[in-house]
What does this fold into?
Amino acid sequence: MNDELVSLLTDLDGVRQSPRYHPEGDALFHSLQVFQLAHRATTDRVLWAAALFHDVGKAIDGPLHDEIGADLLEGLLPARAVWLVRHHLDLLKEPRQTRRRYLGTPALRDLEQLRRWDLGGRDRNARVLSVDGALDLLFAGDDALRVPDDDEGSFDPFAS
It folds into this structure.
């Protein structure tokens, strides 16, 4: 397991979020909830990774956390997961433009799922896995998440 990924998650422990939008508490608790929602809904480990790491940039800067998080994850996660982290707020900030831009693409479906899980991960009484438990699910087994050697950080959201 990659120590950088562990550190990116554990750095979220204690990172406060607006109680108005995040009554559940800190960014780590939220991220683990979002991961569990993804884990229950799909077998797509790239989506699991995007769900788990979508807010890692909040440890550095809240308003720019999508861009910062994606930059931190380059080369550590598959390009599709990094793209999803970078764009996970698009449906919040520009819903109509985002839907129009990615209409009919798998990328829009992925963004919509990630948005639903992000909104759903706000239960202050949720029971969540530990960081190690979540990473074990993500990186264990024959179908473990891997970053391909030829994955140079580009993802085409319009490719099918």
